[in-house]
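Hi,

I'm pasting everything inline rather than attaching a file, because the server keeps stripping attachments. The sequence lines come first, and each chain or strand is labelled.
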Amino acid sequence: MKNLVVFGPPGCGKGTQSANIVKRYELVHLSTGDIIRKEINANSAMGDLLNKFVSHGVLVPDNIILKEVYRFGLDHLNSKGIVFDGFPRNLYQAQMLDRIFHKKSMRIGLVISIDVPEDVLMSRIIERGKTSGRSDDTIEVMKNRLMVYQSQTQPVIDYYKKCNRLVLIDGTKPVDKVFEEIELIINERLYR
Ligand code: ADP
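And the predicted assembly:
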């Protein structure tokens, strides 16, 4: 399987690029944010609980997320590979992912980190908030999401850097240019 992580701060474009990758390489898309939003929109008791975290821009507890990831992984063991979007988001999640995968003789072969400066992220999210309907696409919540990203998610970059799985790309270019770069990296690293 060709498993990869698309990594980066909120608003960097990882959802869009993950969808592009999945289509081009016939992989499956695991977006923890999408799974969470589906639950929230279903108005279930679990959805109400999840919304308390998401609407404040803080991370959902690891045990809830890991259960979903584990289930998704088991359901897609026969796929060509999984694109992880929005996961892992802290060191514990990254370590658990490696541990779960190791047991199944699978691995994350590549981590693509999409780099975008904070002022650009902020204006993208404010723009997206006009139509996304997401309770977390506001200036106040976005400030929190960026803080959480820096303190909890950024350390994951070093984790992947140490084992040579990380590639950084410039996410300020137009969507199709960013994807061209991603394609080059994936072809070189995973399909050589
Ligand atoms: P973005 O990266 O633009 O913030 P996501 O859809 O990836 O959007 O995530 C939205 C929210 O969902 C996060 O702010 C967080 O509250 C929650 N979330 C998503 N993925 C995870 C995860 N792996 N661990 C904990 N919380 C998560």
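Residues 10-11, 32-33, 36, 53-54, 57-60, 65, 86-87, 89, 93, 136, 145 surround adenosine-5'-diphosphate (CB under 6 Å).

If the labels don't parse on your end, tell me and I'll reformat.
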